[in-house]
Each structure stands twice: as C-alpha cells, then as structure tokens.
Design brief:
Blueprint: H1 9-22, H2 29-38, H3 44-59, E1 65-67, E2 70-79, E3 85-96, E4 100-102, E5 106-112, E6 118-119, E7 125-129, E8 133-135, E9 138-151, E10 156-157
Antiparallel strand pairs: 1-2, 2-3, 3-9, 4-8, 4-10, 5-7, 5-9, 6-9
Length: 160
C-alpha cells in the first residue's frame, strides 16, 4: 500500500483565509451568511479552492480512499495552521453518505462538478452545521466535491 503524497502547505495556507474567519465564530446561520458573502461561490478564493481540490485528486493527495461510491480523504488534521480545524474532502455523485454527528459543528464548502449538483439541498457555496447536529450527507443532481472543516477534528459516525 502506497502512502499518499502530503498535502501541499500552499493549500493549507490558502484554507487559513477561511479558517481564520471561522475561528471563534459561533457555527450558525450568521457564519454561513458571512462566508457566502466574503468567500462566495464563483469568487477568486472559491475558484482557487476548487482548483486545489481537483488538482489534489489528480495528484493523489486528496480523496485517496473510496467506499460506497464516495471518494474521500483527510487533507489535514486539526492544526494551528488551520485554526484547530481538520480538513477533509469528498467527491460524491447522487449518493447518500453514512450518518454522522458533529460534536463541534461542521463547515462545508460545496463545489458542484455538474451544474445541478447539490449537497444537502445546497448548490455552490457554504453550508454550516451547528455543534451537536447530525445528518446523512447527500448529493443529488450530479457530482460535487465538498470540502469540510471540523473544529477540533471531531466527527462521530453513528447509526441513524
């Protein structure tokens, strides 16, 4: 089994733009609105993030695992560079993922690869789940890449 290439520090530095804005902010609708305003879908930061995610898949440092039709992988553990948030990326196409809970919340950046793809009902942009929330991540309408940030790196896979 080969070890995936390490995540480039430039990608983590790029993500720190978002994680610095998120750090210390309550995970709620106001954070979601702020992120969608300040780092919007189709804006330069969003487009660069999408480019990194696609490049990472191509080069093998992102989404190196696959289960149940979902490609996934952890780009970074919770770290000071990412303001205490882990970074994971998934690629999903018309699929429902495993139920899980977010003890400290979850911040998702949805990047559709097909025009009508949505993640949990959200097209391109940010979706924020508050602490203690849970869901079965679902992509409908095509294929999407979703980058998700977990404060403290905490996620709990559950039975729903």
């Amino acid at each position: 089994m080969t070890t995936p290439a390490p995540t480039p520090p430039e990608f983590l530095a790029h993500l720190a733009v978002a994680t610095s804005s998120i750090s210390g902010h309550p995970l709620d609708a106001s954070l979601e609105a702020m992120l969608n305003r300040d780092l919007p879908a189709g804006g330069p930061w969003f487009d660069e993030t999408r480019r990194y995610c696609l490049q990472g898949q191509e080069e093998g440092w992102l989404c190196g695992r696959e289960a149940g039709g979902i490609k996934f992988g952890r780009a970074a553990a919770a770290d000071p560079v990412t303001h205490g948030m882990s970074v994971d990326v998934v690629e999903m196409s018309d699929v429902i993922g495993p139920h899980h809970a977010h003890p400290n919340g979850e911040i998702d950046l949805v990047m559709p690869l097909t025009p009508d793809a949505q993640f949990d009902g959200r097209g391109a942009g940010w979706k924020v789940y508050e602490a203690g929330s849970a869901h079965r991540p679902t992509v409908t309408g095509g294929k999407a890449v979703v980058l998700y940030l977990l404060p403290g790196g905490e996620i709990r896979f559950t039975r729903d």
